[in-house]
Design brief:
The protein folds into two domains: 1-130, no CATH class; 142-246, no CATH class. The longest helix has 35 residues, at 214-248. The protein is α+β, with helices and mostly antiparallel strands. It is 52% helix and 14% strand. Helix 9 (184-196) runs antiparallel to helix 11 (214-248). It has eleven helices and four strands; from the N terminus they run H-H-E-E-H-H-E-E-H-H-H-H-H-H-H.
Length: 256
């Protein structure tokens, strides 16, 4: 964490506490001292998510969101952070994305969300526009916590490649692409396959390397069901849209 801060703000402050993070005032003071108002300022916000915080207390993933700021946007972000009484270096990725819109950040700029597990594997969710990310977050938040969705999909990617060899889930290395492309039909198929093989509890146990309390398992399963319902709704909507296109174009829409 200290290395990340030092990389972002070289020589800003001397950090004696390895878990200490610079305050908003310190960051603002450092940026002002550089006197480079016209230069784009890169900001990386690390955030260790705690899945089911009330039950597990297990920091199983590290999510960070990257966005390139203009000086005027950064100034507004500092003001908003002070108003909300939050530390920019520890705010969650979802909250940070909402803050971008509150300060009027352009919605057509690219944005990346990175997920890293155990400091080994890292996956990147690339959104062509900030507005795409906001739209996705808004949809998913209606059914399940965002970090839980990413965590679930990443667990799927950790599994062996073939079902035939070990009767386990295949390696879904393209799950993030399915999300970005909003390929709900194929993504829903992956979730259904996982449920049929009853792998979700096993994945959760193996991934976190600890026992789950019963309440946490019930909560996690409930979230999974809601997530599947959300995917099914998206898939049905997409299929209906395709059928309407066929009808409007004069196609017969015969069954295959």
């Amino acid at each position: 964490m200290v290395d990340e801060v030092e990389q972002l703000f070289p020589g800003m402050i001397e950090i004696t506490d390895p878990f200490a993070m610079p305050t908003i005032a310190q960051i603002a003071s450092y940026i002002a001292s550089t006197r480079q108002e016209t230069r784009l300022q890169p900001i990386t916000l690390p955030k260790a998510y705690v899945l089911h915080q009330s039950s597990l207390q297990a920091k199983s993933s590290n999510v960070r969101l990257e966005y390139i700021f203009k000086a005027e946007e950064l100034s507004r972000l500092h003001a908003l952070a002070r108003q909300l009484d939050v530390n920019l270096m520890s705010v969650g990725a979802t909250a940070f994305a909402y803050m971008l819109f509150l300060i009027g950040a352009p919605s057509n700029l690219p944005l990346c969300l990175h997920l890293q597990n155990d400091g080994v594997h890292e996956y990147t969710f690339k959104f062509e526009k900030v507005s795409d990310f906001a739209e996705y977050i808004g949809q998913v938040n209606q059914s399940i916590k965002t970090d839980s969705v990413f965590h679930t999909l990443d667990q799927l990617r950790q599994q062996p490649v073939t079902l035939q060899e070990q009767e386990r889930l295949p390696l879904f290395c393209d799950a993030s692409l399915l999300l970005v492309r909003k390929d709900w039909l194929q993504l829903f198929d992956l979730v259904v396959l996982a449920e049929e093989k009853e792998q979700y509890f096993k994945i959760m146990l193996e991934f976190n390397h600890h026992r789950l309390q019963r309440t946490a398992m019930e909560e996690w399963w409930s979230n999974l069901i809601r997530f599947m319902q959300f995917l099914l709704q998206q898939a049905n909507g997409e299929e209906k849209h395709l059928n309407e296109q066929v009808t409007s174009s004069g196609g017969t829409g015969g069954s295959q």
